[in-house]
Specification:
Length: 437
Amino acid sequence: MADTVIRPAALYLDGDAPAQELIQRCVHCGFCLPTCPTYAVLGIEADSPRGRIRLMKDAWEGRIAPQNAAFERHVYQCLDCRACETACPSGVEYGKLVEAARSQVERTRRRGAMAHFVRWLALDQLLPHPRRLAFVTRLTYAARDLGAGALLRLVGRRVPLAARLAGSLDLVPAGRPSAPALPLLFPAAGTRRARVALFEGCIQRAAFGATNAATARVLARNGIEVVVAEGQTCCGALHVHAGERAAGRELARRNIAALEPLDVDAFVVNAAGCGANLKEYGWLLKDDARWAERAERFAAKVKDASEILADLGLTAAPGPLDANVAYDEPCHLLHGQKVSAQPKALLAQIPGLRIVPLAEADWCCGSAGIYNVSQPDLSRKLLHRKMEHLRAAAPDILVTANPGCLMQLEAGIRESGMRTEVLHLMDLLDRSYASAP
Ligand code: SF4
Ligand code: SF4
């Protein structure tokens, strides 16, 4: 990395610069390096957490501009998996840093017309609009069924965008999209122990609506009444990860306004990426005088579905399932929310399940929001590494808890010719209850 001084002053634009207080916590010890997937693959200091933090510091000190191609490349080659946060003994909250660094890049970044259009379409026109997203999801499944992938791959030899689209089509899960409109209320079975609002998500609702229904059934079966509030929208995680913090903040305000009036004990979410972002609404809106306090209050009530179930304990006994199961920890559940013991404790309560160890279960699968689309080569390297470990573990079922991970892992398994089934933890629990006496 060039160390030349470009200007003797901070090169960040106003607002959303990586927080100096967080940068200063880094003591360059390097404990995070062995946990960083991009450092493992690329072997370059600037593609390690420590190297990227150094780049952010350099921009504060006027040595490199966020518009510099190297700054942009290293910041975007990061998965934002936050494994470095878990490893860091100094409490560096790296996710907040890299997301702010990306927002600085986006302030001045120029894209080609097509790339700009795709980004506008996905982030502005689809994710925040459930009906449009459901429609496009159905179209995508139909395109997959009609064999559009092969055609796109052919065109992709000349047109890079077509090759990217073919790669995206490979991620479409087997079967049909499931987006059943959920009842507005799932009454608690037996004595009501809690009342929660289910956060449906955007891609989760469009492609994994059946998992939302399963989550509500599992919670209700365990004495937790579930309400499904209207007016909620995409949590904004993909926007924040992509450096679009203003759009992320707007979505946060809409969700807070829709959900905070509800008389509930918690806002429950089953998508790890959404959960991590919802829990950081306080940070996202900290500089907005009208919303900061409301956002903090809202974030404090967000819980992953496994968290509330493990905290309250299962009152309904799960039914038996005869299978070898491995658990792959979603980064934004493990590193983003520090939720790891709870899903494992729930799995351990299903009679007949044999939990098999999976090496590097705490490593990113390469999905990482839209990383598998924006950085396909690096993403595939990480997916192949994951598939090698999966082949060694050879479970019947691979359990995880995030829509992006579900799609990425299923695509990897399909390509590798393995027969492992991929399931969300809540789907597995629901299946277990279906087999209960
Ligand atoms: S981020 Fe943390 S673990 Fe990594 S070098 Fe800095 S202080 Fe050490
Ligand atoms: S977030 Fe993940 S990929 Fe990025 S620096 Fe940290 S460990 Fe490495």
